[in-house]
Amino acid sequence: xxxxxxxxxxxxxxxxxxxxxxxxAGPDVVDIRSVYGDQGIFTFDPGFASTAxxxxxxxxxDGAKGVLMYRGYPVEQLADKxxxxxxxxxxxxxxxxxxxxxxEFEHSIIMHTMINETILRLFNGFHYDAHPMAMVAxxxxxxxxxxxxxxxxxxxxxxxxxxxxIIAKLPTIAAAAYKHSVGQPFMYPRNDLxxxxxxxxxxxxxxxxxxxxxxxxxxxIDLLFLLHADHEQNCSTSTVRLAGSSGANPYSAVAxxxxxxxxxxxxxxxxxxxxxxxxxxxxxQIDKYVDKAKDRDDPFRLMGFGHRVYKxxxxxxxxxxxxxxxxxxxxxxxxxxxxxLALRLEEIALKDEYFIEKKLYPNVDxxxxxxxxxxxxxxxxxxVMFAIARTVGWVAHWTEMITDPExxxxxxxxxxxxxxxxxxxxxxxR
Length: 430
Ligand code: ACO
Prior knowledge:
By secondary structure, the chain is mainly alpha-helical. It has 18 helices and 6 strands. The protein has helices at about 35-40, 75-80, 85-95, 100-110, 115-120, 130-140, 155-180, 195-205, 215-230, 235-245, 250-260, 270-280, 285-295, 315-330, 335-350, 355, 365-375, 380-400; strands at about 5-10, 15-20, 30, 60, 65-70, 75. The strands form 2 sheets. Strands 1-2-3 form a 3-stranded antiparallel sheet, with no helix packed on it. Strands 4-5-6 form a 3-stranded antiparallel sheet. The model has no long low-confidence stretch (mean pLDDT about 95). Acetyl coenzyme *A binds near residues 302, 304, 305, 306 and 365.
């Protein structure tokens, strides 16, 4: 890392030299850590649009060029040649695995897919119409009450078992939430199936008959998971880092990430896109909704459009758009009208001056919901699918933070604009 300087002038006209750090790619950062101690001022960046909160070696995004790389590998190459489980290994350990390493990793994940039976009984405490994200967040938070052998965050072996365990068990927990919501018996994982196929089995098999996993469906899930696996310091990942920075057990930190992911501005967008497309209903209604999205006085936004970082195109959306065609063709095109509506909406919005000027393009979630729906998943499960995929990213970032010798508890400051000191007034005088 090379060092340069950045000169700031403070209120008294004195020049202050701040070190500038350069990463291996991306903008330089001004190291402001000494600013409060030396100058007595804070920096102000609500939404963190200009703030690098940490140093990381995991994922790189160039929002202007539409570049996304995991550990240096372009996501397009990984989507074409790799698999979700191999990408999990890459994100966790920094390098692509050898054949033996991959086989060992896959075996370890398979051997951790079952959940403690008592965890299963937790689901009975939820009402049948509980949102699956609420159940998954609650159950993941409770995992620290079951797996005491993996909560010593300073122990490398504990951290590794935690990583394998949570990546392996998230699909089982997600499927249990789904089965609970539809009133069907839970289906135990099958060790002879791959990650995505096993998830499909746990979601859709019933004890009364044989279930054959559809290869196209398994491939589509594997691709969607690979594309969602990590996205550097996004809202949920930053939440996991912040919650974990206090030394909290990692299951709680991941549960915090799941909660952050749920919001419609983040992972909840895939669910919101489907609701929006259904609300728009037909191509002749698109103009009306595009106008609503442009109206500053109307809270309506085109869900699945816009991104804090991508200001040209979201490379994941480009890949998923292609996958959508394949899935709908091969699974009987049940959702063709919805997909056609999405394509037309994209076409109209991309030609609209408002969306061009604000650099608003379809993001990853504009299409992912259409695929999930074609696979037979209810809308309420879409964000849960995202959570399964992003778990590895959260774990990789949590591990990177815990093992960084410079890590400290995350503790931002504020610009206070509340009342200045005033004296307490007795209640009889108010
Ligand atoms: N529809 C209409 N207008 C929009 C949209 C949209 N989807 N997104 C942004 N804008 C407008 C804003 O109103 C704002 O306009 P202004 O400059 O006149 O005030 C401008 O574009 C900039 O938008 P911000 O909200 O300031 O951008 P920010 O980076 O804070 O938000 C976000 C990014 C949250 C993704 C936003 O674009 C959005 O809400 N999109 C819809 C939800 C969505 O798809 N989220 C998924 C993100 S991807 C992911 O998490 C996996």
